[in-house]
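Lab notes, practical 5.
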Amino acid sequence: MPADGASQDVPDDCVVYRVVKREDVKSDGTPGSGSFSDKADEDGSRYYMSVYFDDEMRAAGKNVHDLQNHWNSDGDRYTVYQFTTAEARARGEKLWRDPNDEFPGHGACKRRDDSERTRGQKRNLAKITKPATS
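Output from the prediction step:
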């Protein structure tokens, strides 16, 4: 996990995508705050919220529809929401690029002070998201 300043390679105007389980979307179409929790890898090596950066996806020839299809390869279980890096940073988050072999543009989001998000902080993230557009 990078230090606080390491997230500066992600521009403030970069669109950030968060993949959310459809069962966690409220009746008004907004994601539940639980969709913004940090998750550890199976081996416990990482503890952050996975996101995808639009600029890297586009550089690899991918878009939000490709991301949605990737996550729904076994059914229609996920939907994608978006916010900007600046919006997340304004709410105390740090973001960094964390490439993986599954899909281009993978990144990470964590509280700037590395603490676990409170329910209120998760709600604040949920409030800034909107359904993803291409």
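Observations recorded by the TA: The chain has a mean pLDDT of 89. The chain has four helices and seven strands.
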